[in-house]
Amino acid sequence: MSNCISVLFRKGKHHGLALLCTLLVTAFAVTGAFAAEPKVRVLATTYPVYLLTRAVAQTSPDVQVDLLIPAQTGCPHDYALTPKDMQKLSKANVVIINGLGMESFLEKPLAAAGKKIAVIDSSKGINAIVEEHDEDHDADHGKADAAHKDDHNPAAAAKGHDHAHEHGHDHGHDHGGLNPHAFSSPLQAAVMARNIGRGLAAAAPVAAKNCPQVADAYAARLEALGQRLAAVGANAANKNVVALHDGMAYLVRDAGLNLVDVIQEDEEAQPSAARLLDLVKKIKESKPVVLIGEPQYSDKPVLALAAETGVPAVQLDPLASGPSGAPLDYYETVMSKNIAMLEKYFGK
């Protein structure tokens, strides 16, 4: 610095002022670069948790929210962490999980991290659907509810819960007996958002101090969607639906509808011809209003059953996957479209 000052005097007033300005600009640029470095790195495990967390942290510039797995992955039932995923985990201060047994693939990494990473289970307080075993493949997913109000350690939350019952159908994955797709209902997503807001403020009191208030406002909007959803079944004479996948179970239940059955029992395989024939019989007997497909899976089984039975096929998005650069209101927008589709067939 003394050399710079001497240069100022040697070069003259104008030269010196120019050099001084350059030094100041450089100093501010360096300071700005350090300020741009996020103080809290938050890692959301799944796409829907990522959407909710971004919305909750939108007014907290010192909270950086990233997604662990690719946005198009969908539900990571059999997911294996990649080296890139492990690198993300190593840099995270906070990990927000879906819970309900969704993240069994994270059990060991989170246990190894110990207290180095704060883990927020977004599913606390969710009215979870228990998938009960039924040998006749006639499990009523809409009625098997259980309060999920445990305080558990991060590894247990990622793995599942010991008290859970057997799975109703063999979907090619194990959640420990609980349906983990609570995010498909705006009412349950509101619970998740509040958990995320409170959890972030506890983990980062300064950087995330605004998160609980933002979460409450966001959750209120989701609850308004939930009230609109609940009106669908309240006004319907026939409440029966058949869905492609159990990812729609929470949406169906919170709409006041009855999920007669799911078409695709195994996520990794299309239903067999025998299974489709059984479903045709069941659909003709139960007379569901619609057959529900999802953009995350092939719609061929749904369309085939619709053609055979005459029951209309619709597509609803549970938001298990989606665009990585989605706007902050993406969850609300998609859920509103889902509800509008149900209103069309069940009446307001």
Structure description:
Keywords: Signal, Transport. This is Periplasmic solute binding protein. It holds the Pfam family ZnuA. Residues 136-176 have a biased composition (Basic and acidic residues). Residues 1-35 form the signal peptide. By secondary structure, the protein is an alpha/beta fold. The chain folds into 3 domains: 2-36; 40-221, 3-Layer(aba) Sandwich (Rossmann fold), CATH 3.40.50; 231-346, Nitrogenase molybdenum iron protein domain (Rossmann fold, 3-Layer(aba) Sandwich), CATH 3.40.50.1980. It is built from 12 helices and 10 strands. It has helices spanning 2-11, 13-36, 47-56, 83-91, 107-113, 154-159, 186-203, 211-234, 249-254, 273-286, 300-309, 330-346, and strands spanning 40-44, 63-67, 94-97, 118-121, 127-129, 145-147, 240-243, 258-262, 290-293, 313-315. A 4-stranded parallel β-sheet has the order 2-1-3-4, sandwiched between helices. Helix 5 links the parallel strand 3 (94-97) and strand 4 (118-121). Helix 7 (186-203) runs antiparallel to helix 8 and helix 10 (273-286) packs across helix 11 (300-309). The chain is globular and about 55 Å long. It starts with a helix and ends with a helix.
